[in-house]
From TrEMBL:
GO molecular function annotations of the record: prephenate dehydratase activity
Pathway(s) served: Amino-acid biosynthesis; L-phenylalanine biosynthesis; phenylpyruvate from prephenate: step 1/1
First-tier enzyme category under EC: lyase
Family annotation (InterPro entries): ACT-like_dom_sf, Chor_mutase/pphenate_deHydtase, Preph_deHydtase
Segments for region (Disordered): 275-306
Protein name per the record: prephenate dehydratase
Alphabetically ordered keywords of this record: Amino-acid biosynthesis, Aromatic amino acid biosynthesis, Lyase, Phenylalanine biosynthesis
Domain Prephenate dehydratase: 2-183
Superkingdom of this protein's organism: Bacteria
NCBIfam families listed in its UniProt record: PRK11898.1
E.C. no: 4.2.1.51
């Protein structure tokens, strides 16, 4: 059965598939995060790979919101991918002709400093992914040379666009974390000794609630690596907290935390324990070289990220 991923072809998510042991011939692109996850829910796909967090802009909220409250899917793995951005136009365009920029919001935010300096009056148009932005700008039906796309250099050239500026991101060391999501199995993969666990805890808004939740991690000495608040959708002032920590639920400290949080709030959602990706920088390849690395957590300087 195929693995769904945030497409189209050429997306950073596609480049992240190798780090999660997904072969290209086994993957099917979907136009949005929710569509990719719904393919798993419906049984059309065995798993889905979606962007989860960026080292510059933080959580990819479209992915977090689509997964956090359902409880019917779980995270089974993660990988890290470095991201680089370039600006490109259709043939015949130039920097002076650009009045509109199409890209994903995370990419736009990471390139905002460059845009404010070189294209301060350009309008920003949102795309579901950077690869989709490149595809739309390169569409033969698009006769406008005033629209540029921001994506990875390889993807922009793949769609026949002319790259007019490279390395426009604010941080050359930017990295995006991608997660693999599947339907829950009765048995989780066993602990590896280097795992991450993810859970969602709804809170009513009392000051003591968050304190009590965080105290569970202090009490058990479980390293808490991420705390993210998101509106619960139940009314103003209601929030859910996405919590990530080191360790595996089958290990007593993490298991104790999850059990305690569930006793406090029956709506606590456990999203999985899975091997934690470790940044492993690799030498930069020659331009357009087909560098890939199948090791989870390896950083492959090629491709696209959202």
């Amino acid at each position: 059965m195929p693995t769904a991923y945030l497409g189209p072809s050429g997306s950073f998510t596609e480049a992240a598939l190798a780090g999660l042991q997904v072969r290209p011939g086994e993957a099917v692109p979907y136009p949005g995060v929710r569509q990719a996850l719904d393919a798993v829910r419906s049984g059309a796909a065995d798993a889905a790979v979606v962007p989860w967090e960026n080292s510059v802009e933080g959580a990819v909220t479209a992915s977090v919101d689509a997964l956090a409250h359902s409880g019917d899917l779980c995270i089974t793995g993660e990988t890290l991918l470095p991201v680089q951005f370039a600006l490109a136009v259709p043939p015949g365009g130039s920097l002076s002709s650009v009045h509109r920029i199409l890209t994903h919001p995370h990419a736009h935010a990471q390139c905002r400093t460059w845009i404010d300096t070189h294209l301060p009056h350009a309008d920003f148009l949102t795309s579901s992914s950077t690869a989709q932005a490149a595809r739309d700008v390169a569409n033969p039906g698009n006769s406008r040379v005033d629209t540029a796309a921001i994506a990875s250099p390889n993807t922009l050239r793949r769609y026949g666009l002319e790259v007019i500026a490279e390395n426009i991101g604010a941080r050359p060391d930017a990295v995006t974390r991608f997660v693999k999501v599947a339907r829950p199995n009765k048995r989780l993969a066993p602990p590896t000794g280097a795992d991450r666990s993810t859970m969602v805890v709804p809170l009513a808004g009392r000051v003591s609630d968050l304190h009590d939740v965080l105290h569970e991690f202090v009490r058990t000495s479980v390293p808490l690596t991420s705390v993210l608040s998101r509106p619960s959708g139940t009314g103003f002032g209601g929030y859910s907290f996405l919590l990530e920590c080191e360790g595996h639920i089958d290990e007593p400290p993490v298991g104790s935390v999850v059990a305690s949080l569930r006793r406090r709030n029956a709506r606590t959602v456990f999203l999985g324990s899975y091997p934690r990706a470790t940044p492993t920088l690799t030498p930069a390849p020659a331009p357009n070289s087909p560098l890939t690395n199948s090791l989870t957590g390896s950083l492959t300087p090629r491709g696209e990220t959202l």
